[in-house]
Amino acid sequence: MKIYRIKYLFLSLLLAFAVISCNNDDEAMMDDDLMMDDDMMSMNPDFSGTYAQVDFMGRPGINTVLGADGDAKDAHNISVPTNQGTSFQAAYQARLEALHDAYAIALGLTAEDVDYQPNILGDILNGPSNDGFTNNPVTAEVLTTVLATDVLEVAPNAPTTYFNGGTGAPNYEGAIGFTGRTLQDDVIDVSLILLFGGGDGVRFNGEGGLPQLVTDGVSLTADNITTTFPYIGSPE
């Protein structure tokens, strides 16, 4: 009987020692974790190392459409704005005119019939005229000079918009553009209109045997925009 009591007492002591040991380890681990967290909180971020710019997108879609190939697109993405105009304007213009030529061939027309036409940014970029935009043509060179520098302008004294056509075609009275960008701006459609819309903004609108090039067919709806981060609703 004494033997059993001694045996049980010994087992009880072992169990108690094990429990105490575990508690001490847990507390030590918790202390270590707290110390580690305190150290992490007090550490300054380390930004040392070598970084490489891989993308540049002030105006989405421009480099995608006007970059001649993958290498050209990559080169534009890693360039800085001060170099983009001189480095890419000529290539962008050649690409813009080549796209119009390609559509002319596909439609069985001459290049002159489907050549680039000055677009609706005339008054905005060159100052107002007396009869809409016809006296202030935004040539292919002017347009690609603007678009090659892939930044968003800011106009503190004007409404923020990528483009607002005002009264619309044909005179676009009150139109403003390139004063910034809001979530509601359909940047891709605006870009397509500038590239292919001509003087009234609707040249390649799918009518008269011409292709639909002034819209991607994807519109923004009210429930796409929210008032909390990330400000874009769920895909539809």
Give an overview in words.
The chain has 236 residues and is mainly alpha-helical. The chain folds into 2 domains: 1-41; 62-224, no CATH class. The chain has 7 helices and 2 strands. It has helices at 2-42, 62-66, 70-77, 81-106, 122-126, 140-148, 187-196; strands spanning 163-164, 176-177. Strands 1-2 form a two-stranded antiparallel ribbon. The longest helix is centred in the N-terminal third of the chain and has 41 residues, at 2-42. It is globular, with a radius of gyration of 32 Å. The termini are far apart.
Briefly, what is this?
With 236 residues, this protein is an all-alpha fold.
Summary tags:
44% helix, mainly alpha, 2 domains, two-stranded antiparallel ribbon, globular, 236 residues, disordered N terminus
Distance between the termini: 79 Å
Oligomer: single chain
Count of DSSP strands: 2
The helix tally amounts to 7
Return the domain count.
2
Query: What percentage of the residues does DSSP assign to strands (E)?
Result: under 5%
Shape: globular
Reading the helices and strands in chain order gives HHHHHHEEH
Mean pLDDT: 77
Roughly how much helix do the residues carry, as a percent range?
40-55%
Which sheet architecture does the biggest sheet show? 2 strands, antiparallel
Tell me the strand order in the biggest sheet.
Answer: 1-2
Rg measurement, Å: 32 Å
Low-confidence stretches: 1-11, 13-36
The computed structural class is: mainly alpha
How would the blueprint of this fold be written?
Elements: H1 2-42, H2 62-66, H3 70-77, H4 81-106, H5 122-126, H6 140-148, E1 163-164, E2 176-177, H7 187-196
Antiparallel strand pairs: 1-2
